[in-house]
Structure formats: C-alpha cells, structure tokens
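Trying the structure run again after the queue cleared.
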Amino acid sequence: MKLIHIVAGLLALAAGAVALYASKGSPLHRHSGAVFVAAMLLMTTSAGVMALFYSPNRVNVVAATLTFYLVVTGLLTVRRSVAEMRLVTAALMLIAVTISMRAFDLGFDALASPSGLVDHVPAPPLFLFAIAGLLGAGLDARLLWAGQISGGHRLARHLWRMTFAMWIATTSFFLGQATFFPEPMRKTALLAIPVLLVTFLLFWWLVRVLWKRERAVRYLKSAGGKL
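Done. Tokens:
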C-alpha cells in the first residue's frame, strides 16, 4: 500500500506540474490533467486507508479526504452539468463540511496541546484545511442554488480546486517528507520553492481567468450586449 501511495504521489506531482504550465484547454493540459486526476485519487485513497488502518494519523485522514474532495469536484465541474451532478455535489458538500469541522477540532486540539502539535502537525495547516473545506462547501451550495455555471466562473472553480489539491500534495511531499531529502537541501529554502511556485500559479490563474471574464463583461455592457 505504501509503495502504491509513493508511486501515485510522484506521478501526480509530475503530471500536475505539466498541467499547471500547459496552456489551459490544450491537448497536453487535458492528457496530463487526466493522469493527474487518476494519480491523485489513487494517492489520496491509499493515504486515507493507511492513516485509518495501518498507521493511524488523524491529520492525514483530513488532508487525504479534503484533497480527494477537491479533485473530484474540480473534475465534475468540467465533465458534467450542474443538473447531472446535483446529488453528487450535495453529498460531497456534506463531506467537505464534515472534514472542515474535524480540521477545526484538531486545530484547537493542537493549540491546547503542550507541544502545539497534533500528530506532529501544528495548528495553522489544520485551520487552513478547515477554511478550504468551508469555502468549497459554500461554493457548492451557491452552485446548487444557481443551478448553472459557465465561462470564467466554471474555469475558476475547476482551477482553484485542482491547484489547491496540487498544493496540498506538493507541501506534503517537499515539506512534510523533508527528512528524506539530503541535509544540505533541508538547510536552505530549496524545498519551499515548489510550494511557493504552486501557490503563485494558483493565484495567477485565478486572477487571469476572472480578470478576462470581467473585461468581457465590461465590453458587452459598453456595446449594449447581453451576457
């Protein structure tokens, strides 16, 4: 199981890196994205199983479930209409709320702990997971209420979920497994560079996609058109 998790994780990181840098909608982006999704689902599933049954770790259960949720909802956004995925989205929204509440609970446990840790993890990442889960669930509720999504909002929903899932995987590998890297690398900021790059790309693509949409909206309004 551990070998499956490692191989899937490395494949997800490689495919995700290609998908992030490839032109959105291009064949390279679609193919690498498909590999990324498959590898991420396998990686998160194996991580969850290990954290539940082989090497109990509450934080890993939270991270694996949240990442699984983000990837699945990000994929459904571009593969199915809102009507087709209504029930699935509602179920996933409840999972996101549940995992968010669990992350908050663990975060407060970490704050109350003498070591400031829960399963070797401090409170801030747990609160970040909690906020991400609530944000995702809130946007799911909004989507179900609206009944439709298109254009820039649809692409933004897909991008932030996939990229944040990539950020969790990248952080877990380069910072969470830092002891497996040579000591000279651990003493510098090299291991943080991939995490910072993914963070930058997350905001870069969101701003670019939403800014282009706003420009289109302004153009249509000035021309007297309708959205």
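The two ends are 50 Å apart (CA to CA). Worth checking whether this holds up in the mutant runs.
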